[in-house]
Design goal:
By secondary structure, the protein is of the alpha+beta class. It has helices spanning 2-21, 95-101; strands at residues 34-37, 45-50, 54-61, 66-74, 85-90, 112-118, 121-128, 131-139. The chain has one domain (21-139): Lipocalin (Beta Barrel). Helix content is 18%, strand content 39%.
Length: 146
């Protein structure tokens, strides 16, 4: 009888250990600093750069190598490996700066924007009038020559 209990206890401990391994919670926070791109085949798409404290996103037209600012806001890096990681970015541009600098009015006028990082992608909503679209970005790997 004692062997059965020991076997059941070991089975339970093993199951709990395996369940713990499947969680998206690692000790190391993801490195979100760098270049990001929206995977799409549309003419215009989003490209982004994240630095220590800023996220900037541009509408990009590769055929003309043209960029129009969409978002420039604050960035707060994750402190742990838990996913999803969500942060609220505060717009860094004033209305006066926006009205003087950006002719095409592609720049977001929102005061804040919520971003979510999960499974290697950053997702967020783009609002234009009554239209709200979900966008996602993937990190661009920088290739170096040896």
């Amino acid at each position: 009888m004692t062997r059965k209990w020991i076997a059941l206890l070991l089975a339970a401990v093993t199951a709990l250990a395996l369940a713990g391994c499947s969680r998206k919670d690692t000790a190391t926070p993801p490195d979100l600093i760098g270049g990001w791109i929206q995977p799409t085949e549309n003419d215009w798409f989003h490209i982004a750069t994240i630095t220590d404290d800023t996220i900037e996103i541009w509408w990009y037209l590769p055929s003309e190598d043209k960029r129009d600012l969409y978002w420039s806001g604050t960035f707060t890096a994750p402190t742990d490996g838990k996913e999803p990681y969500v942060w609220v970015s505060k717009n860094k541009y004033t209305e006066e700066e926006l009205s003087k600098s950006y002719y095409y009015n592609r720049t977001s006028r929102e005061e804040t924007k919520e971003f979510t990082y999960e499974d290697g992608k950053i997702s967020y909503n783009v609002t234009s009038g009554h239209l709200r679209l979900g966008f996602s970005l993937e990190k661009v790997e920088v290739k170096t020559e040896n």
